[in-house]
Specification:
The protein is of the alpha+beta class and about 200 residues long. It is built from five helices and nine strands, in the order E-H-E-H-E-E-E-H-E-E-H-E-E-H. About 30% of the residues lie in helices and about 25% in strands. The protein is globular.
Length: about 200
């Protein structure tokens, strides 16, 4: 029997990412829109992984197989407990929830404070619910920092739905060999975590 897997996010970029990983495997992918789910969990975790688990547990009442992710954004040249760090509140400044345009303006202004270019990185926590149990994945700090990139004080492309900050982001070029291997290993481990968590098999063509 083909497993139905719910991607528990409203972020179109994250949906696309998971759909790309699950493509060509023996599963049926569904979204919150497909199941007419409008309820959202209250994310009270202290880390991206805690929030991902909260989401997965919440959406598990709608589907037997769920995958969820939460992210935090960190400036490399600030202490992680610095009150200016976005952390889990990428879209929130004080009591204000930023629009995509507001996020671009806010973070480009922050980049100006670093001379027009700020080194940042994401921490992503991923949680899967399947076979009545939860599984989790989160890279270590060394890998997260290796996956870093620059935020700029100006736009270099049009905003991407779900990832507005990509429009002011620039990849780090010419990684050393150790970093390249680390990034490659991360991608392989992340994909394997998802496939193995759901016990999926490749569709033979």
């Amino acid at each position: 029997m083909v497993k139905k897997i719910l991607i528990g996010t409203t972020n179109p970029a994250k949906k696309q990412r998971f759909m790309e990983i699950l493509n060509n495997y023996d599963c049926e992918i569904v979204t919150l829109d497909d199941l007419n789910i409008t309820d959202e969990p209250e994310e009270l975790g202290n880390t991206p992984l805690e929030n991902a688990k909260i989401k997965a547990e919440f959406y598990s009442k709608y589907c037997d197989n769920v995958i969820c992710q939460d992210s935090g954004l960190y400036f490399a040249d600030m202490d992680e407990d610095d009150p200016r760090q976005p952390g889990l509140y990428i879209k929130r400044v004080g009591n204000e929830v930023l629009s995509y345009e507001g996020m671009i303006t806010y973070y480009s202004n922050m980049a100006k404070n670093f001379g027009g270019k700020a080194l940042v990185y994401y921490k992503n926590g991923t949680a899967v619910f399947s076979d009545n149990c939860f599984k989790e994945f989160m890279a270590d700090d060394k890998t997260n920092k290796a996956r870093g990139f620059y935020l700029l004080d100006h736009q270099i492309c049009e905003p991407i739905p779900g990832w507005p900050l990509d429009s002011i982001s620039q990849d780090i070029e010419n990684h050393d060999k150790e970093t390249e291997n680390l990034l490659r290993e991360y991608d392989v481990k992340f994909r394997k975590f998802i496939i193995d968590s759901f016990k999926l098999k490749k569709i033979e063509k």
